[in-house]
Amino acid sequence: MLMVMPIHNIFADIPGQLPEELTQTLLDRKSIRVERIVSQGHISPEGSWYDQNEHEWVLLLQGSAGLLFDGEDEAQWLKPGDFILIPAHRRHRVAWTAHDADTVWLAIFFE
After folding, report:
1. What's the confidence (pLDDT) of residue 93?
2. Domains and CATH numbers, the chain
3. Across the beta sheet with 55-62, what order do the strands follow?
């Protein structure tokens, strides 16, 4: 039986400085995982690509970021409210995130 979760706030408990991007699993069930990701100027390491087995629907809640897809020359700019569906195995990387504000993502992974 699924239990009611206590109320949380997506913008709460963000550390002032993050040496690494913060990824927190908010919900993890058989066929779906929901994560909060917080970036503070973080990017994907040069030359590395995400190549996931799952589809990823991601919503940018706060800040700004650039997503670069393998084979494309320029990163796509995301601002608050923008969302994108990234199919499984579509290679991508975070080209940049805002340095002057927390960039908060809501990512939903599914098969």
Report:
1. 97
2. 29-106 (2.60.120.10)
3. 22-29, 32-39, 103-110, 55-62, 83-86
Reported as a single tens digit per residue, the pLDDT across 38-93 is 999 999 998 999 999 999 999 999 999 999 999 999 999 999 999 999 999 999 99
Q: What is the CA radius of gyration of the chain?
A: 14
Task: Spell out the SS3 assignment of the chain.
Answer: CCCCCCCCCCCCCCCCCCCCCEEEEEEEECCEEEEEEEECCCCCCCCCCECCCCEEEEEEEECCEEEEECCCCCCEEECCCCEEEECCCCCEEEEEECCCCCEEEEEEEEC
**Dist. CA 76–CA 64, nearest whole Å:** 11
- Report the distance separating Cα 30 and Cα 10, nearest Å: 22
User: Around 3, how many Cα atoms within 13 Å sit in the side-chain half-sphere?
Assistant: 3
